[in-house]
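Illustration 12: Galactose-1-phosphate uridylyltransferase.
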Amino acid sequence: MNIPEFGTEAAPATALGAGVVKRPTRLADGRELIYYDDPGTTLGADRAVDARTLAARPETASMRQDVLTGDWITVAAGRQNRVMMPSADADPLAPQTPTNPSEIPSRYDVAVFENRSPAFGPALTDAVGSAPAASNPPRGLDDLTHLGLGRMRTSVGRCEVVCFSPEHAGSFGTQSVTRARTVIEAWADRTAALSALPGIEQVFPFENRGEAIGVTLPHPHGQIYAYPYVTPRTTRLLDGIDRTAPDLFERILAFERSGERVVLQGEHWTAFVPFAARWPIEVHLMPHRHVPDLAGLDDAERDELAPLYLRLLRGVDALYDTPTAYIAAWHQAPVHVGRDTVRLRLELTSPRRGADKLKFLAGSEAAMGAWAAEIPPEVSAERLRAAIATVPEVIA
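Figure caption equivalent — predicted structure in token form:
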């Protein structure tokens, strides 16, 4: 992608699906910033230059292998001093003003930029843009799966912030259908771009919502992590597919659609509480055809996803009198393995087991990974269907 050097006011525009327009540029320290304009946006083509004086980008973190599990643990000390719940006039994700030197210089619809305090990157296996080359990068998947004491690698990759709106407060579920569709287009575009970067093995878009989850910014936003390895959860999934059948996800979808745990469905998508749900609130949203990632969705699937996903999120909020904290995790196939077997799906989870009760992971769950669920999945599905029924149809 042709990204302008810092200092240019107008970025070259690219037309994406659904009338969304993409405008890439750079921040003062060289980090990538991309504006995604809604169809029919009132914003002009010119965007303000980031005139801040910023410190040099941090050194890329390192990651250490846990020889007992094979997991790679990133040690990113720079993340310790992240901004915590700022006021509206100091929101780092709002458009810049004379008194708020935030991360985004211009008014925007949707904006995506490289995180200033990343767990992965900015170094990659080869230098890209303003990022340096990694000094001790992973040497492929075989290198990463090898076990040994004291093994370290540079934590190559990319961490990006996805701002759903310029407003100070909200979430994905509070957006309009048009805005949700723009975000979906941005997710798909970034998934394709990050998957093409050297050293990237898996791309993970997600939204953390609510202080109970650990959110440090109330601004409506999500993140995208581009990992230098296949994550532990997906590695275990690949093993499960090997032990069952390559069409495992097709079987899961047929099994759930024939049962009592479906909570919402359309022509292209079905949302259901899974048979073995761990969390008090847990919903999976899956496309009806095999698609490895968001970039693989066609226009019809993206068009239906926007209102259906909004209604699902608003249904979750309708369970109680106050908004529910959650993690909305878009699981995608790895970049280089499992593309024909691992299907894209959303897994939305919340620890909220009552209006004023949370499920805490202690003893058995946290230490041993042995879960005990307090709410039967069928009961959870019935409650969620009833809550969704109170939500008006979501229209553009």
